[in-house]
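Supplementary notes for students who missed Thursday's class. We covered one full example, reproduced here. Read the sequence, then the structure, then the short commentary at the end.
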Amino acid sequence: MITASERLNTVLDGQKADRPPCICPGGMMNMVTVGLQDEVSVFFPEAHCDAQQMAALAKAVYDRGFFENYGVPFCMTVEAEAMGATVTLGRKDVEPHVTDYAFDDVHDYRKATPIDLNAGRAKVVLDAIRILREHNDGVPIVGNLVGPVSVASSVMEATRYYKQLRKERALSHEYMEFVTQELIRFGVAQVEAGADIIAIADPSGTGEILGPRHFAEYAVPYIEKLQRACQEAGARTIVHICGQMHSVYQQIAEVHANALSFDAVVPLKEARENLPGRVIMGNVSTFAIEMSGVDKVQTLTRACMRNGSDIVAPACGLGMGSPSASVRAVLETVRASTEE
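Structure (token representation):
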């Protein structure tokens, strides 16, 4: 019998499996809900800071029938905090978020600190991956990185960051290179700890925010450098980009991740037409999962498979209040497809 890891690896390698895998990577695409926390009595914010609890929640995602993978962490603030931003860890029903920047001007980018892999939440993530690796049970372990533009605009004041991409190009590239190299260190460490796959999500680095020219200049080369380093370390890679893609398909084709993942606003048929031969992941509406009930989720999941999703997944991070029955409906629908 094919394992979840074998199925996902087969598809990420561009080959056909018995059916699409059904995953939710973690990181920005957090899969832990209030309901799941209640089921296993492991809670945020404590699980963000304790490797055993983080691993327990990641394992529960698979064991309780949510998705076919483990994935850590459960937010997109680990890197920004390690590099000097101030973060509040939220509550059981609220994810961590940045509350203060490390600096306000790209001329001061050297105030950003290197990521300490032996301390703080970066160490928690690495230790959680090691704990999950000990199970060696055929479940793929997905490590997560926030993409370079999103980290850079979380460590530095965001509005000025975007302005200075245009006005201070040389310094902006120096800053982006620094951020990317730190992310490479963290990503490679996750692979060495036991992650099979590295998912990179860059929600602030979209074509809509940057425009096609700056998307090509600031998002694509640094995402590609990051994902390539993770591949060279031995992992397969998934890259998620938020927002509409119609103006930047040509540019995103230059990112050679094993799979590309898109928001719910991107029609999968359109993505397939513009990215022939690429592995596409997505993109069941997370709004529908939280608000629309099991029947609607089943319908949307079938539509994803019919429209060419190679890896079925939520389009973004789950709403914390998503009903467990609606979350499970995605995987149940995918599994049922092999019985029809």
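Commentary. The mean pLDDT is 96. The first helix runs from residue 4 to 12. If anything here is unclear, bring it to office hours.
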